[in-house]
Specification:
The protein is mainly alpha-helical and 508 residues long. 64% of the residues lie in helices and 2% in strands. Among the domains are: 57 residues; 74 residues, Serine Threonine Protein Phosphatase 5, Tetratricopeptide repeat, CATH 1.25.40. The chain has a two-stranded antiparallel ribbon. Helix 6 packs antiparallel against helix 7.
Length: 508
């Protein structure tokens, strides 16, 4: 209306201005019902235009009056919608806060007001019943949702959660399976099904679920790849104990595929190397461990690499381990391995030099143990005792917790593997079940006397150089140049390091 008035006013001004500029006011005459009116042309234009404005104004007012009932109905509908949205909002907040009675009251109010959003009302009614502890009411509300195609997924999820809360696992899995079958994007259903397969140690079924999720793009490719590597490793561990050669072959294939998928997944690499070595494929076992060391060095890797050969001298073994460390020289584990290699090779000078590269590292029990062994090998028993005392109070390294001093590395139970699969898939980090449960693990400190004792116990009779602390078996730590008498006089200590990353080994 305002725009129309402005248009009429502008036209009137333009018309009067045009007549005024023409210099002739003009003449206009109008006769109506016996009445006659004479006026100038400009006046006539103004009369016509203002008359039109009055007619337009009258018409608009008439239309406004006629449309008043519809306008009032729209106002009432908008007010109801506003009240319904407010009730829904407050109801969801009350349900989230655990105020069941208030949530149910607001859900009922929203049901009376929200005619155009029945879905939200049903969801609020179900959540309000849950908050109020009304399991039967919540089940009824979620069950009603199953009758509406756009609400079936929410209904299945709600019924699954209620079933889990009541301990009805089979019912929960059934709802998760139905939801996963109906939609391609139900990640929660996939996760519930995967956790159930893992708890039951059904690794093959877990692999199928992971592949299905990757095809549906439910999980990122990197997550799926990590999950597959961990599942293949768990499957290999499960199959390797079989007496059937075909099944053991499947275990080898699974472990090899896991090592290929994720060279940084140490359990898979160690188990693959162990199975390859048992199958006589020493070259492939060596290559798998070297590739993993270049990707992510781990203590279990060099222990497995050490045990690949059982017919070499300590010097040869130390040299071989140094070559492994050189493939990822800057890494902390490689610097630690340089010290271990020098100790194995009975090279105290190299051990001292390699130990100097760790001076900037914070003191842990593992580093304190290494320093004690280097000091003892160098003929400094008092220094060794000091490092042992410091190591008793130093921080333990969880990376060593997976190394069983009495058997295989990564000797996990089925439950441990289930946890590892989920943890590694989501974060790419290894968990350490033995460390978490405070079970007996590989000791980072050597078995040396802590109390003060006569130094003669640490020195070989005859004034010969002191021997290294044995790290693998009875032959380690004995200099190759020692005669039989000196070797028989050397202290022999059995270390638990002899059986860590592999099965019990043959005598060297």
């Amino acid at each position: 209306m305002i725009r129309a008035s402005l248009v009429i006013l502008i036209v009137a001004i333009a018309a009067v201005s045009a007549l005024a500029m023409a210099g002739d006011a003009g003449h206009a005459s109008m006769t109506w019902l016996g009445w006659r009116a004479d006026m100038t042309a400009s006046t006539a234009v103004l009369v016509v235009l203002f008359g039109a404005l009055l007619v337009t104004l009258f018409w608009r007012i008439l239309l406004w009056i006629v449309a008043s009932p519809q306008r009032a109905a729209r106002a009432r509908s908008e007010n109801r919608r506003r009240q319904a949205n407010e009730a829904l909002t407050r109801g969801f907040l009350a349900a989230a806060a655990g105020d069941g009675s208030e949530a149910r009251r607001l859900a009922q109010k929203a049901a009376d007001l929200a005619e155009d959003t029945p879905g939200l009302v049903r969801v609020l009614a179900a959540q309000a019943a849950e908050a109020a502890g009304d399991v039967v009411g919540a089940q009824a509300a979620y069950t009603v949702m199953l009758g509406f195609p756009d609400m079936r997924l929410a209904g299945h999820r709600g019924l699954m959660q209620l079933a889990l809360a009541q301990g009805e696992r089979e019912t929960a899995l059934r709802h998760a399976q139905e939801a996963f079958s109906e939609t391609r994007s139900a990640r929660w259903a996939w996760r519930v099904l995967l956790e159930a397969r893992l708890e039951a140690a059904e690794w093959s079924a877990g692999l199928e679920l992971v592949k299905n999720a990757q095809d549906r793009k439910i999980v990122p490719p990197v997550t799926a790849e990590r999950a597959r590597a961990a599942l293949l490793t768990a499957l290999a561990v499960q199959l390797e104990t079989s007496s059937d050669s075909n099944v053991r072959g499947q275990a080898l294939d699974s472990a090899s595929e896991a090592a290929k998928l994720q060279p940084g997944f140490t359990p898979g690499v160690v188990i693959a190397a162990r199975l390859l070595a048992a199958d006589g494929k020493m070259g492939r076992a060596t290559a798998v461990l070297e590739t993993a060391w270049r990707s992510a060095p781990h203590p279990a890797l060099w222990l497995a690499f050490r045990d690949l050969k059982t017919n070499e001298t300590p010097r040869e073994r130390g040299q071989r381990l140094m070559e492994l460390a050189a493939q990822n020289a800057p890494h902390r584990e490689s610097r630690l391995l340089n010290v271990e290699s020098a100790l194995i090779a009975s090279d105290t000078t190299a051990a001292r030099s390699a130990m100097a590269a760790l001076d900037s590292e914070p003191l842990t029990a593992r580093i304190a143990g290494l320093r004690a062994r280097v000091a003892f090998a160098s003929g400094e028993p008092d220094e060794a005792r000091l490092w042992l005392v410091q190591g008793l109070n130093a921080l333990q390294e969880p990376n060593w917790s997976d190394l069983d001093p009495e058997g295989h590395a990564f000797a996990y139970s089925a439950l441990d593997w289930a946890r590892l699969v989920m943890s590694y898939a989501e974060s790419g980090e290894l968990i350490h079940p033995r460390y978490e449960r405070r079970e007996r693990t590989l000791s980072a400190l050597p078995e040396l006397p802590i109390a003060y004792a006569d130094n003669a116990a640490f020195i070989i009779e005859g004034g010969l150089d002191p021997v290294l602390y044995p790290v693998d078996d009875d032959t380690y730590g004995l200099d190759e140049d020692l005669d039989e008498t000196a070797q028989s006089a050397a202290p022999r200590r059995r270390s638990s390091r002899g059986r860590l990353a592999s099965a019990p080994r043959a005598a060297k």
